[in-house]
Amino acid sequence: MKISKKILAKEWLIFITFFLFGLFIMPLIDGLFSFYPLLDYTYHDIELEDWEFIAFIRALAPYLMIQIARFTYWSFKVLNK
Fold first, then answer.
1. What are the pLDDT digits (tens) for 42-55?
2. How remote is the C-alpha of 16 from its chain's centroid?
């Protein structure tokens, strides 16, 4: 199966959009809806390396949620045929 350039470009755009959303917008939303300082309200005893991993996972979370929703929709569509 060949992947067309159009499909690849669409998936790349979805990834970049939601990765940037997770990287920049999610911390702002977190800060608005919490009663604690933006970066100091959880994981107080975690080493610096773990903070980097948590930040990376939190940046990927919106993209992964969209992919799970798309996959679930596709699965139901295929099963109902």
1. 555 556 566 777 77
2. 10
